[in-house]
Amino acid sequence: MSTPDFGERTLQDFQQWSKLGGVYYERNPENEKEIRTRYVRYDPIIGKYVVHLPTNWVTGEPTPEMKAWHEGISRAITTMQPATNRGFY
Questions:
Q1: Residue ranges per structural domain of the chain
Q2: Could you write out the DSSP letters of every residue in 7-24?
Q3: 3-class SS at 87?
Q4: What is the pLDDT of residues 55-70, one digit of tens each?
Q5: CA 20 remoteness from chain centre
Q6: What is the rounded distance in angstroms from the CA atom of residue 5 to the CA atom of residue 26?
Q7: C-alpha span between 56 and 14 (Å, rounded)
Q8: Residue 85: band (very low, low, confident or very high) from pLDDT cuts 50, 70, 90
């Protein structure tokens, strides 16, 4: 299996300037005290972002490093990535 060609850039360069990956939180519309999290990461083997399934609803508050989830993120990741395995460069 071949790996994506990143050109002169490295995967570490990509992770430093790409702000899409990380942990996101979503509030329960029926109970404002509950949240669930979603994890977004870049998979270098397939050359695309991956959105993991959300967790179950839990009572709590998000940590400061968590970003608020928006359905536009999921749509953008699903529709704006190339269908080929060419890397980010």
A1: 11-79
A2: TT--HHHHHHH----EEE
A3: coil
A4: 999 999 999 999 999 9
A5: 6
A6: 35
A7: 31
A8: low
